[in-house]
């Protein structure tokens, strides 16, 4: 069965088309657009019409690509950037016309459930083994604990996103020490008082995590993240992007996402970069419902 997800996030809007066979997902088409919706979305303020129009063009293009790839079911979801604006429901309704299907505004709890399902689907772990998942996005971060058998048993959604932190604190290219320290302070404040249940292992999903894997490998611990900081501040974003085959827009956000992940490592322990996340959770759900 071929299914698809369009994920309207705070930093990017992404399409995943995948085949589902034998309980596994095989990606067929993956498209990413740096729409940077978080920059235009302010809490309890309306999203501007020109921003909605530009986003609708991207959504329409990705919906067309899903149809051309032969997806028999497509689900379009939106997350933190549209949750926080005053007209998020109306924006989703407007985008539905571009998508050719309803655009769903996910709650933080549903986002956590789907991210956990996608992150743990391919993990080699016992059904009752407690797993931690850190989903660091552009406008929020979801911290999740659960098991394969029971699903999510604990979660927290924090207003702590790489895009927001970069926009507020990271002005220099590359960032300077005082800017990085400001981000560390914001992360520490957001995580103060958060106590997660114990886990046997923890994984990271989201654009920051997958990009960091190119810099330091798939295991993100304190030493690896410190090494990544050194690489990111050694040269301007355009140079780092070429050296590590990353998008310059992602490199600009990466120091902020990295420092959020460093805070999560202190909370959950070392992180492994997972193969799946929110989009994989969505398409797995579509495939299961259609089988």
UniProtKB/TrEMBL annotation:
Stretches assigned to coiled coil: none
Chain ranges of the Ppx/GppA phosphatase N-terminal domain: 16-286
Pfam families, per the entry: Ppx-GppA
Gene Ontology MF terms in the entry: pyrophosphatase activity
PANTHER family: EXOPOLYPHOSPHATASE (PTHR30005), RETROGRADE REGULATION PROTEIN 2 (PTHR30005:SF0)
Protein family per UniProt: Belongs to the GppA/Ppx family.
Name under which the protein is recorded: Ppx/GppA phosphatase
């Amino acid at each position: 069965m071929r299914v698809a997800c369009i994920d309207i996030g705070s930093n990017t809007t992404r399409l995943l088309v995948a085949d589902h066979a034998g309980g596994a997902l095989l990606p067929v088409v993956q498209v990413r657009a740096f729409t940077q919706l978080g920059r235009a979305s302010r809490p309890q303020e309306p999203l501007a019409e020109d921003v909605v129009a530009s986003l609708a063009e991207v959504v329409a293009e990705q919906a067309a690509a899903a149809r051309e790839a032969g997806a028999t079911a497509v689900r379009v979801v939106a997350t933190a950037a549209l949750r926080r604006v005053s007209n998020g429901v109306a924006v989703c309704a407007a985008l539905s016309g571009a998508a050719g299907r309803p655009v769903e505004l996910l709650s933080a709890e549903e986002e956590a459930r789907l991210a956990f399902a996608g992150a743990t689907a391919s993990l080699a772990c016992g059904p009752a083994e407690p797993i931690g998942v850190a989903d660091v996005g552009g406008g929020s971060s979801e911290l999740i604990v659960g098991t394969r058998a029971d699903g999510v048993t604990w979660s927290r959604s924090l207003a702590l996103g790489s895009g927001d932190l970069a926009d507020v604190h990271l002005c220099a290219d590359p960032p300077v020490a005082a800017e990085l320290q400001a981000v560390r302070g914001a992360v520490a404040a957001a995580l103060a008082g958060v106590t997660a249940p114990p886990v046997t292992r923890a994984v990271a999903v989201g654009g920051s995590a997958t990009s960091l894997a190119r810099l330091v490998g798939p295991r993100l611990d304190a030493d690896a993240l410190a090494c990544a900081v050194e690489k990111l501040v050694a040269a301007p974003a355009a140079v780092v992007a070429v050296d590590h085959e990353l998008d310059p827009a992602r490199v600009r956000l990466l120091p902020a996402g990295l420092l959020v992940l460093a805070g999560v490592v202190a909370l959950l322990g070392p992180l492994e970069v997972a193969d799946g996340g929110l989009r994989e959770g969505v398409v797995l759900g579509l495939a299961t419902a259609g089988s």
